[in-house]
Specification:
Helix content: under 10%
Low-confidence stretches: 1-19, 106-198
Strand content: 35-45%
Number of strands: 15
Largest sheet: 8 strands, antiparallel, barrel
Distance between the termini: 73 Å
Shape: elongated
Number of helices: 3
Structural class: mainly beta
Order of helices and strands: HEEEEEEEEEEHHEEEEE
Radius of gyration: 53 Å
Mean pLDDT: 74
């Protein structure tokens, strides 16, 4: 019997315990109020840099299934014009669901009354003793015969108490009733993204390969030459509105120049692998530094930079035209596509005008580049 009682108590404890976990489905929705927004990112219950989910602006809702509903959950949402720089988070919190735990019903065991005990058999009183016959006085009257007392009446048989009535069979609790499938309330939380801050500043390191073309040549050098560029862009240092800003571009270029009187580029390419040292020494190694204030235009995932500034040439191996240094002015434009938050590819082109030479040579440059933003 004790074992049965323990089993009942455990069942009563475990049944309400299973009612505390309430899985729910939560859906957050938001609206796009600014057509310039191209990207959203969000995460639930935190703002860890590694846990953001990034989507484009066509996605305006997020649903999470089977999440614990007895506690509140928050969605952190940010928006961006370029997929690189994001606004501060908007936060929307769902209401927790409070589950009432019903008290376990106590089944009262119906106890059948004990078997009715028939009363002991009725004891008939002893036979009535007739008084002795009247004795006529006579000579010595003999006393009446001694009357024997009636037979001693034995007390009724001791009535044994009714057999101990066992309580009705212990009522086992009904099989645990699984709660009807919990209707999963869909908590709809409409979230409006926070206003995008004016600051869209980012820094971009770019690597590019291209070529230069001098229509009239540069001194004794040919019209064409290869070029490698390492750039550092400070984007949107100062912003005017959601699409327009100002920044600064600094780049270093390497130009190997080949004198036409010494060799030609087809000949150079054909002999560079067979006699690298001799062929390479025919080049005039030139480095140049460019500094340019620029206008930054952000058009979704496409960015455009336009500007102009000054440059300085320096020849390592030979005098370039008539002096080792040259300086001038230039204008440049670039077009880039932001593949994701940190990587972009693009094309730039420039026009340079040497001012330190009386002949004022001019040349055009172009290159393909890839950028890494942070």
């Amino acid at each position: 019997m004790n074992k049965k009682l323990i089993a009942v108590l455990l069942a009563l404890v475990l049944i309400p315990a299973t009612l505390f976990a309430v899985p729910v489905v939560i859906t957050w929705e938001w609206t796009v109020e600014d057509p310039m927004v191209t990207t959203f990112r969000y995460q639930v219950d935190g703002e860890k840099s590694s846990d953001w989910t990034v989507v484009d602006s066509s996605v305006t809702s997020f649903t999470v299934n089977g999440i614990e509903g007895s506690v509140a959950h928050s969605l952190y949402l940010q928006q961006s014009y370029d997929g690189v720089n994001f606004s501060a988070s908007s936060v929307s919190t769902s209401e927790p669901i409070v589950t009432e735990v019903p008290a376990a019903p106590v089944a009262a065991a119906t106890v059948e009354p004990a078997t009715t005990v028939e009363p002991a058999a009725t004891i008939e009183p002893a036979a009535t003793i007739e008084p002795a016959a009247t004795v006529e006085p006579a000579a010595t009257v003999e006393p009446a015969a001694t009357v024997e007392p009636a037979a001693t009446v034995e007390p009724a048989a001791t009535v044994e108490p009714a057999a101990t009535v066992e309580p009705a069979a212990t009522i086992e609790p009904a099989a645990t009733v699984e709660p009807v499938a919990t209707a999963e309330p869909a908590t709809s939380a409409t979230t409006k993204p926070a206003d995008v801050k004016d600051s869209r500043y980012s820094t971009t390191i770019s690597l590019g390969l291209g070529a230069s073309y001098a229509p009239s040549g540069i001194g004794s050098f040919g019209k064409y030459g290869p070029r490698a560029i390492l750039g550092l862009g400070f984007n949107n240092i100062w912003t005017i509105n959601k699409a327009l800003g100002f920044g600064l571009d600094v780049s270093v270029a390497y130009d190997p120049l080949l004198q036409t009187s010494v060799s030609s580029w087809p000949s150079f390419i054909s002999t560079i692998f067979s006699d690298f040292t001799t062929t390479f020494n025919k080049l005039t190694q030139v480095a140049s530094v460019y500094v340019m204030p620029k206008i930054d235009l952000t058009l979704g995932k496409v960015t455009v930079a336009l500007g102009g500034g000054g440059f300085l040439f320096y020849s390592f191996t030979d005098n370039l035209i008539s002096q080792k240094y040259m300086y001038g002015a230039f204008a440049k434009g670039s077009l880039a596509y932001q593949v994701n938050n940190w990587f972009s590819v693009g094309l730039n082109g420039g026009y340079s005008w040497v001012l330190s030479e009386t002949t004022n040579p001019q040349f055009i440059t172009g290159s393909l580049f890839m950028g890494f933003s942070f």
